[in-house]
UniProtKB/TrEMBL annotation:
Its EC number is 3.5.3.26, 3.5.3.4. InterPro entries: Cupin_2 (IPR013096), RmlC-like_jellyroll (IPR014710), RmlC_Cupin_sf (IPR011051), UGHY (IPR017627), UGlyAH_cupin_C (IPR044697), UGlyAH_cupin_N (IPR044704). This is Bifunctional allantoicase/(S)-ureidoglycine aminohydrolase. Keywords: Hydrolase. It comes from Sinomonas terricola. It is an enzyme of class 3 (hydrolase). Residues 70-139, 192-258 form the Cupin type-2 domain. GO terms for molecular function: allantoicase activity; ureidoglycine aminohydrolase activity.
């Protein structure tokens, strides 16, 4: 098993209890790893030998700013053109295997922990040239352009970016930030948050950013609105804007999750363009 959790599909036996940990509420949703079976996958146009678990999409009562997919490409599978919407930006984060990313005519080999920011309007594609499946997260958002700023595509990895320690926590809470938080060209952040055993978010965060959280490693108790929910590697959480959240990482190992949030834009009340 690799460092990051990736679903393998399958189907529980008929003797399996139907009781699970899935929760759907107005303020949050929990999709546990146990429901990511074969029968809930989707095919993707333009992709061959591929299946996807769509774990977030804009619908009433759920995500409003983004979609998130767990994509699995088998050997020989490919998508010469992955993104068909010109105004949509994306992030790809590889959790298993390796895949070739073609971006601007250049080929990048993304291995486990590989990260790519794919700017709106840039053409890119993927190909699995290995003998094993590759699994990755694909987060998509309609890019909100800001006059005088333009986000640029780039490729990096979890291993290449040093996590930043949160203030006054003695190293138990760190965030791997793949873009500068002060760079207004970016209207979304997809980071990795890491807690050491015993680390906590010490207050119920209540903020305008919508969240998607996929647990990469470990387990923890997570506060979602008024409920403490136990989560583990492979679980996904969606939190609406202003949903109170906190967590307690109980160990025995690190608790890490891939975190989406929308940032750096004024609240849109009309169709007027954003000022520079």
């Amino acid at each position: 098993m690799g460092k990051y959790y990736s679903p393998e599909g399958g189907l529980p036996p008929q003797t399996h209890l139907t009781t699970e940990r899935a929760i759907v509420k107005e303020a949050y949703t929990v999709i546990p790893k146990g429901v990511l079976t074969d029968i809930v996958t989707s095919n993707l146009p333009g992709f061959s030998n591929t299946r996807a678990w769509i774990i977030a999409r804009p619908i009433s009562g759920f995500a409003t700013t983004f979609s998130q997919l767990i994509v699995e490409i088998g050997p020989g599978g490919a998508a010469p053109k992955a993104e068909f919407e010109a105004g949509v930006e994306g992030v790809v984060f590889v959790t298993k295997g390796k895949v070739n990313l073609t971006l601007g005519g250049e080929v990048h080999e993304l291995e486990e922990g590989g990260y790519a920011y794919l700017a709106a309007g840039d053409a890119w594609g993927l190909e699995n040239v290995s003998d094993d499946v590759v699994s990755f997260h694909w987060i998509r958002k309609a890019y909100e352009r800001l006059e005088g700023y333009e986000a640029k595509s780039f490729v990096t990895s979890d291993a290449e970016v040093a996590p930043r320690e949160m203030p006054n926590v003695n190293g138990v809470w760190k965030t791997t930030r793949f873009v500068d938080p002060d760079d207004l060209a970016h209207d979304m952040h997809v980071n990795i948050v890491t807690f050491q055993p015993g680390g906590v978010i010490p207050f119920p965060e209540t903020h305008v950013m919508e969240h998607g959280l996929y647990v990469l490693e470990g387990k923890a108790m997570y506060l979602l609105n008024n409920d403490w929910v136990e989560v583990e590697a492979g679980d996904f959480m969606w939190l609406r804007a202003f949903c109170p959240q906190a967590c307690y990482a109980g160990g025995p190992g690190e608790f890490r999750y891939l975190l989406y949030k929308d940032v750096n834009r004024q609240v849109r009340l009309t169709g007027a363009p954003l000022p520079g």
